[in-house]
Protein 1
Amino acid sequence: MAPKPKECKASVTAIRWPRPEVIEVDLRMVEPAELPFEAGQWISVPFGPKTVRAWSMLSTPSHKGMLTLSVDVAPAGMGSQWLRGLKVGDAVEFKGPTGGFVFNRADPRRAVFFAEEIGIVPVRSILADLYETGFGRPAILIFWARDPSWLLYDAEFRSLARRYPGFTYVPAVREAPGGWRGETGEPAQVIDRLVHSVDRLVVYACGGGDTVNAVRDALVKKGMDRKSVKWEKFW
């Protein structure tokens, strides 16, 4: 059973910018002191009676007293402007955890994760949680971006693949720059080349709606049941 959402208060303890359009915010829980959640879930921050913004947690459930958000603020909307204005020490109120984009450890099928750019955030949380808690089965991450600069946490995934032989990391970009060692093409093309069989396969896909739909359609063409593609659409 996933934890029920609750009203929460936290304090900003650190802010980082892994790239000019992406902000990371560390939040120390104040009330309650810890927030149990499942890797892949998100919190919602209110900006009025009917206006909220939902952001996935980058951190893992093992750090219950601390949460880390990682958000693309390029859209420059209400939520983006609010995040850009945060300072260390600011109070943040939110509701959480929420969301069903979580990994089912009881599912015996082979797991493939596909993420597009900032859609890597819940996937990173899931993978980090799995491997830091002794998940022994193979898993594959296909991480697609317009160019290598948008492959957030690339070094982390390369390190994970070196430390855990069962984990395979495949970075992919739309157009390959000079010296690129990875996959190239549109998301559906990459999936078509890399996924040879959908037998006993479950896929977790996160990114833009068009990309998630294209990936799902490519898998269905190979004979996959649509319900075997678990997804979270960020935009």
Protein 2
Amino acid sequence: MKRTTTFAIALAGAIAVSAAAFAAGGEKPADWNVGGGEQDEALNLTPDLENGLEVYEVCAACHLPEGWGSRDGTFPQIAGQHPKVTIKQLADIRALNRDNPTMYPFALEREIGGAQSIADVAAYIQTLKMNPEPGLGAGDDLEHGAQLYKDNCVRCHGENGEGDNDKFYPRIQGQHYEYLLRQYVWIKEGKRRNANPEMVEQIKFFTDKDTTAVLDYVSRLKPPAEDTAPPGWLNPDFE
């Protein structure tokens, strides 16, 4: 299996589709987790990891074969993510409940398949070992960040950022700082329309200092050793 090298060509061909879709449907209101549609269908299917790998070839163009994304936060780490979280986000993007013009054309059914493929790729992504060297913040206010995390984030995301698959709370430990920052700002400003309203309420009074401190702290939370790849690891499925 070859490493993916065609992202630029595919993206250029998809821009018109993505722009048209978001012009037509980008203002559609979203709810946090009402379920229904492809989300419920995918959640009730038995995943096929072999097909999940085939589907993931499309994802690897941006998220890399290892699922580590980019340290500058352009693309998130998705390796090790809870399958219910991945299923929800893919279903929301396809239904235009979450705005992601870059990802949207690659998430369409004609590109990766239907609900079964969503279930399959979500299961495959969970098997990927996580990045041991994510992008970090400045590291100059970690004590403040730790206290903010303890007071505001633990209830949903867990003591170590492990999230909760059954409750659709994402795993955020070891996520790239710049990606966390961008999503956090979008959630706070209402741009991330499928965000949990409890989180929106929780962070609405955070200052810029609070924001950078807590997200820097989160980016440094370590996944368990058994879920973490060694530095320089390459996904053997793409050799």
